[in-house]
UniProtKB/TrEMBL annotation:
GO terms for molecular function: iron ion binding; peptidase activity; tRNA N(6)-L-threonylcarbamoyladenine synthase activity. It catalyses: L-threonylcarbamoyladenylate + adenosine(37) in tRNA = N(6)-L-threonylcarbamoyladenosine(37) in tRNA + AMP + H(+). GO terms for biological process: proteolysis; tRNA threonylcarbamoyladenosine modification. Fe cation binds at H114, H118, D330. Its EC number is 2.3.1.234. Pfam families: TsaD. Belongs to the KAE1 / TsaD family. Substrate binds at L136, V137, S138, G139, G140, D173, G186, D190, N302. Residues 27-336 form the Gcp-like domain. Its cofactor is Fe(2+). This is tRNA N6-adenosine threonylcarbamoyltransferase. The keyword Nuclease does not apply.
Length: 361
């Protein structure tokens, strides 16, 4: 079945065509336009601008994805769209576009939960041994979920824990912003932290920051305390903050010249990674029947987070599943894939499908 995926939940406008047959999904082509450069001017996503950019770019990307896939619009057999969670206006742009296409092409429409699509994304590259514990770490969400085989091809999801305040990616981005690193700052902070790890003196756990919200027995997360601790540390050591907003290359050059900057990022990254590892270990201990650990979302691209969670899976004798970096951040292939599994399980939506910006989509 040839499914078109539509992703507009935040600041990436993306379309992808995926061919799904039982047990196999092949990405035929994708077209993605990041709005990061537009929002970088404001230091964060501006919802109104995001919606308008999606509306402007979707028709152009549709032409590109067909061209790249080498298929005609008439061969699309289903349309899948991320219906939430996300920014309402941004989601509506994608949902309206998807409805128009499904109606025009006379094919089924299915709304997809963006978070579940992230957790299933690695299914485009490998099989996902279930039951699994999934850790989704993105700019807007941090969730631990249990995934079990469902009645059809689509798994059952049970949320075990979530962030009480900031998401892990948000914490990275806010810390990076306070240092005047380029937006979105997670990847740049990661690169600086890697420089610090190349210096042998950095210990395996952070002496500057404690892993936040771990002295409790819940599977929830909280990163706002760590964020505040980082802001306070930056105020006390003003030399850490770049004088002006810099590029990734400039930040890395600074990090080589100023070991304190790289070490600060290393400590911050370590505290986030430790908190994620501690809560995931707890979830795996409570769900001893899990066969795999799935790591997904933009922060899954973080080298230390990936390293530590992979080591945890190996220690517990579990399969470690994480999508390749392009499938970690927001993309439409994951939406097409999740939508294909839903359609294969006999689930579809009417044209009255609504966007669900908050809660379980
Ligand atoms: O999943 P995603 O693309 O979008 C959301 O659904 O939020 O995640 C984006 C988040 C941003 O906060 C970004 O800074 C973070 O993922 N991110 C990283 C890295 N690459 C992206 N955070 C830490 N280390 C990275 N290498
Ligand atoms: Zn996302």
């Amino acid at each position: 079945m040839r499914i078109l995926g539509v992703e507009t939940s935040c600041d990436e406008t993306a379309l992808a065509l995926v061919d799904i047959t039982p047990g196999r999904a092949v990405l035929l082509g994708e077209a993605l336009a990041s709005q990061a450069a537009v929002h970088a001017l404001f230091g964060g996503v501006v919802p109104e601008i995001a919606s308008r950019e999606h509306l402007r770019r979707l028709p152009l990307l549709f032409e590109s994805v067909l061209e790249r896939s080498g298929v005609a619009a008439s061969s699309i057999q289903g349309v899948a769209v991320a219906r939430g969670p996300g920014l309402l206006g941004a989601l509506l742009a994608g949902v309206s576009f998807a409805k128009g296409l499904a109606l025009g092409l006379d094919v089924p429409l299915v709304g997809v939960n963006h978070l579940e699509a992230h957790l299933l994304a690695a299914g485009l590259e490998q099989s996902l041994p279930l039951p699994a514990i999934g850790l989704l770490v993105s700019g807007g969400h941090t969730e631990l979920a249990r995934m079990d085989a469902g009645e059809g091809a689509y798994p059952e999801f049970v949320i075990l824990g979530r962030t009480l305040d900031d998401a892990a990616g948000e914490a990275f981005d806010k810390c990076a912003k306070a240092l005047n690193l380029p937006y979105p700052g997670g990847a740049c902070l990661d690169a600086l932290a890697r420089l610090a790890r190349e210096q042998p003196a950095l210990p395996k756990s952070s002496s500057l920051f404690s892993p936040p919200y771990v002295d409790n027995d819940t599977l929830d997360f909280s990163f706002s305390g760590l964020k505040t601790a980082a802001m306070t540390a930056i105020q006390k050591q003003p030399g850490l903050r770049r004088e002006a907003l810099c590029s990734v290359e400039e930040a890395l050059a600074d990090g080589r010249r100023e070991p304190e900057l790289a070490r600060f990022c290393g400590h911050f990254n370590m505290a986030v990674a430790q908190a994620l590892e501690i809560k995931t270990r707890r979830a795996l201990e409570r769900h001893g029947d899990a066969r795999s650990l799935i790591l997904a979302g933009g922060v899954a691209a973080n080298s230390l987070v990936r390293e530590r969670l992979q080591a945890l899976a190996v220690e517990l004798g579990l399969a470690f599943v994480a999508p390749s970096p392009d499938l970690c951040t927001d993309n439409a292939a994951m939406v097409a894939h999740a939508g294909g599994l839903l359609l294969a399980s006999g689930r579809r939506h009417a044209l009255s499908l609504e966007a669900i910006p908050r809660g379980r989509a």
